[in-house]
């Protein structure tokens, strides 16, 4: 059993294998080919301490397509509300036979802590990180890379060399930005990070990316522009942020996109605040927006993550 807990601990071979699987399952699903229930008899728990639409549903669908029995843990109706700890909750699921634990949690280190707790108690459950606070969302980054490979007609062995990607928005609260920056850089892309000074995280300065507070500089001649949502729910101080000013300085509008290559793709991990970080006409521009393709790639990418975790 293997884990998918962060981008850092996955080597290039592992990343290529997951991304090849994502593109293969994507083709099989589109062509209506029989997947063949390769994980029949396995049990998957989806345990989400934070809200989700895309990730939770795509892990549910991915598990079912692979023949896995999938159980969504009803957090609001569970003993978590009687004060049961994350450790005791995941040990309970492991004791009930979990082969896969798909976990979304808030605290830094909670995914690794869950993995260690189960390992120490002798369970062989694979842990898959479905989003950890503001720290990481590796399967989102993987599905974003798979979406880009498909759009660019590249294979994982080709990498993303020669491609420049601007990630613009609330970086400090974005687990997607943290994982995408590490993954895209590992795959050879030039990553540019852009946010107002207050929303630039410490990790942005680790050398994996160029950093700027100027949206137009970030977008200059870029191949891909990714917008991020303002995560008001994670603000612990009253960072002054007027939506109109933010849109004007950091939003993806058609005018802002004129700095990018005419062929530049637009991405957003969702959920979107339309009219703030991205305009309607940009989000819905079928010639360049990959946003719904990112959603669609969630299922085959998570199927591939399950296959990787099970060492298929
Ligand atoms: N991109 C993403 O993680 O979306 P959800 O929060 O809806 O899962």
TrEMBL record:
Q: Which UniProt keywords apply?
A: Transferase
Query: Aspartate/ornithine carbamoyltransferase carbamoyl-P binding domain: from which residue to which, for each copy?
Result: 2-149
EC numbers on record: 2.1.3.2
Where is the signal peptide, in residue numbers?
none
Please indicate which superkingdom the organism of origin belongs to.
Bacteria
Q: Which residues cross the membrane?
A: none
Q: What class of enzyme is it?
A: transferase
Cite the Aspartate/ornithine carbamoyltransferase Asp/Orn-binding domain residue spans from the record. 162-308
Q: Which InterPro entries match?
A: Asp/Orn_carbamoyltranf_P-bd, Asp/Orn_carbamoylTrfase, Asp/Orn_carbamoylTrfase_sf, Asp_carbamoyltransf_Asp/Orn-bd
One GO term in the molecular function aspect is: aspartate carbamoyltransferase activity
One Pfam family of this protein, by short name?
Answer: OTCace
| Its biological purpose | Reversibly catalyzes the transfer of the carbamoyl group from carbamoyl phosphate (CP) to the N(epsilon) atom of ornithine (ORN) to produce L-citrulline.
The UniProt similarity line reads: Belongs to the aspartate/ornithine carbamoyltransferase superfamily.
**The protein's name:** Aspartate carbamoyltransferase catalytic subunit
Provenance organism: Parvularcula lutaonensis
């Amino acid at each position: 059993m293997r884990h998918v807990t962060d981008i850092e601990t996955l080597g290039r071979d592992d990343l290529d294998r997951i991304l090849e699987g994502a593109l293969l399952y994507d083709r099989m699903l589109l062509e209506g080919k029989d997947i063949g229930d390769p994980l029949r008899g396995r049990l998957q728990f989806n345990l989400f301490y934070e809200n989700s639409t895309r990730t939770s549903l795509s892990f549910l669908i991915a598990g079912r397509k692979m023949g896995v029995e999938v159980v969504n843990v009803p957090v609001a109706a569970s003993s978590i509300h009687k004060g049961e700890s994350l450790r005791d909750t995941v040990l309970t699921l492991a004791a009930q036979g979990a082969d896969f634990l798909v976990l979304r949690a808030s605290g830094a280190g909670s995914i690794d802590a869950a993995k260690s707790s189960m390992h120490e108690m002798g369970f062989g459950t694979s842990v898959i990180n479905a989003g950890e606070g503001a720290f990481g969302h590796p399967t989102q980054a993987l599905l974003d890379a798979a979406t880009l490979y498909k759009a660019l007609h590249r294979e994982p062995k080709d990498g993303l060399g020669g491609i420049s990607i601007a990630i613009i928005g609330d970086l400090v609260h974005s687990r997607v930005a943290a994982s995408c920056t590490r993954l895209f850089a590992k795959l050879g892309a030039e990553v540019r990070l852009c946010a107002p000074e207050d929303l630039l995280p410490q990790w942005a300065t680790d050398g994996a990316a160029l950093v700027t507070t100027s949206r137009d500089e970030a977008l200059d001649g870029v191949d891909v522009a990714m917008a991020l949502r303002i995560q008001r729910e994670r603000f612990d101080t009253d960072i002054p942020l007027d939506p109109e000013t933010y849109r004007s300085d950091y939003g993806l509008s058609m005018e802002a996109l004129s700095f990018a290559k005419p062929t530049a793709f637009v991405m957003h991990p969702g959920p979107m605040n339309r009219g703030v970080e991205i305009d309607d006409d940009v989000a819905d521009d079928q010639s360049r927006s990959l946003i719904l393709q990112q959603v669609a790639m969630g299922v085959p990418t998570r199927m591939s993550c399950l296959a990787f975790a099970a060492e298929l």
